[in-house]
Amino acid sequence: METLLLLRMDGVAESVLRADDLSFSPKGELNLKASVGSCNVEIQFSPRQRTPPFTAELQAKFAGLLHPLLTIQGCCQGVEVQLDQDHLAFGAVVQRCQARKRIVMMNTGGIDARFQWKTDNFPPELSITPAKGCICPGMEVPFEVTFAPVELINDKRYENLSCCVEGSPSPVTLTVTGSCIVASTSKEVVNFVCPVRGSHSQTLPVFNPTNQHCSIRPVVEGEQWSAASSVILEPHQNKTYKITYRPLSVTADGKKHLGSVFFSFPDGTGMLYSLQGTAEPPKAEDNIVHELPAKTHHTEMLPVHNWLSQQQRFRVLMEILKPDKPDATVSLKGLEYIEVPALARRDYKMSFFTYKEGHYNTKVTFRNEGSGDYLYYLVTFKATSPGVLSTIELVTPVRQTASATVQVENPLTTVTCLTTECKCPEISAPLLHTVPGQSKGSLSFEFQPLCAGESTALLTLHSHDLGFFHYDLLLTALPPPPEKTVHFNTCLGSSHSVLVKFTNHAHFKTEYSGKTDCPEFTVDKALPQAGSEVSIEVSFEPHQLGKVRGQLSVSSAIGGDYIFPLHGISLPPKAQGPFSIRTGHRVAIPFKNIFLQTTTFSFQVDNKCFTVKQADPILSKKTHNILISFEAPPEGFRGPWFGKLTVSSKCSEGHSRPCSWVYYLKGLPL
């Protein structure tokens, strides 16, 4: 007996599976034998898209009843990616601004998928980030779409902006619409004024019209302006934006530098400010004031800056503004050109010199002859009274001369006359000295000291045209050398006087005092000056035989010192007489004790007709009269009678040997 069966599938929703995703065979009615009848049923699951988990039942119908045969469960893992919106409307966006909107991609599938937007097909004003990546199951990826139109457009529509998703049969598409309008401009033009290469800063008000935090990048046009590259704004915040004008060239003939600064906000709105700049001629880089003595060479270092990104060559012009008349006694010197590397600095060396005191206002200009741009300095020199130009050292013995020479340069074209002044009486220089124009003159002066020692003096030359010239003099007067030796020659017991003469070099009347260092030589202590020649009498009175040396010192507080060597020769005493004595009378013969101490002398006569009276010891340098008496003998000889008086000193008196003096006597009758 056979059984008629009918197979059917039940329990699957059409929203989950399509009709051909799950199938079985054979289909239709089947005839199976009783007890042993069977057939193979093939179930096929072939989804063409992701299929969530499902449950289905295979049933058999016979005898009008449904009998469940088996339960089928299954799913299909696949990619299912979609955007939260497939249309973005930007509306009106200001030209050169940009607006941003956000969309989200969602992966509702069961496996990872890579994606990539076809940005090559995007118009220039549209961009999206990120342009590619990977999205995991259940993940959301946010995208930022930016609309930055450059040209004015009305209601532009961009369709089929596609993103390819790995494993997806069809790309994800997006449609964008928007328009571009002209930016609103500030009613007022912002004006800037400053010297060229200077700066002028102003602040511009900026308002964030959106309700989101944003960082905007202002667009500054005009190479003369600079500002911060970005501004951070809180929602609906007012802020100021500082912009600086730094011109590198002068605006002339009424022309101005033009520029602008543009602010764009996230909502597509923007604000444009127009900028105008006037670059005036440059101001002085610096106003330098320097004080220095006249006739002093001074070097001023002036820094020269190159504000360009290329090397510049400047021509240097030096001017004396005040006094305004040309003056050959003032000089400004320096190189004619200076080259400065790009964006660097070099120092320019300027030399200044003036002969006279005064204020000198100068201007030093560095000009680029190609572009005409320049910079300059104002330098004021305050020349005070000149200091000492040099120090001159003069060394000479007393009453001798030492000479020196100073040179004076006359930069003028005419002859100049110099007067000299020195308060030291020992310095002699011509009162007037002339120097021809544009030449050097030499002035010689002499130093003739009268007193030994060291001193200083100031020599000053003055010219109405060239001012003062000061020189320090270091003067050294050495002790005088000895004068010529004065010679004496006399016998012991006698004296020899010599008149010593010398020249008084003082310029006015003075007095000299003399002294010797040897007791054999004597001199008056005070000597009045008589004209330019001075005489002093020196006496030599020896107290022993032989040679005697000494020194005569003649000094004056004004006229100085004179040293005379003294050389005396003491000879043995010569016999004196005859001394005539008439009988019955006596004669006194003066005798001086020439020794330095009290001395006892003996008096002896060799003729009994003559008698001598012995004396007490004679004081040093004192004269004693020796009394000699004469009595003629009674014989009839009529005379005359002769005798000899001998005066002797004793060795015990401290003398090296005894000395004796002989006096011849002559007796006469009445």
UniProtKB/TrEMBL annotation:
A cellular component annotation (GO) from this entry: axoneme
HYDIN/VesB/CFA65-like Ig-like domain mapped to chain residues: 81-178
Keyword Cytoplasm attached: yes
Any single GO BP term: cilium movement
Top-level taxon in the UniProt lineage: Eukaryota
Location in or out of the cell: Cell projection, Cilium; Cytoplasm
Pfam families the record matches: HYDIN_VesB_CFA65-like_Ig
Keywords: Cell projection, Cilium, Cytoplasm
Protein name: HYDIN/VesB/CFA65-like Ig-like domain-containing protein
Species of provenance: Zoarces viviparus (Viviparous eelpout)
Record lineage: Eukaryota, Metazoa, Chordata, Craniata, Vertebrata
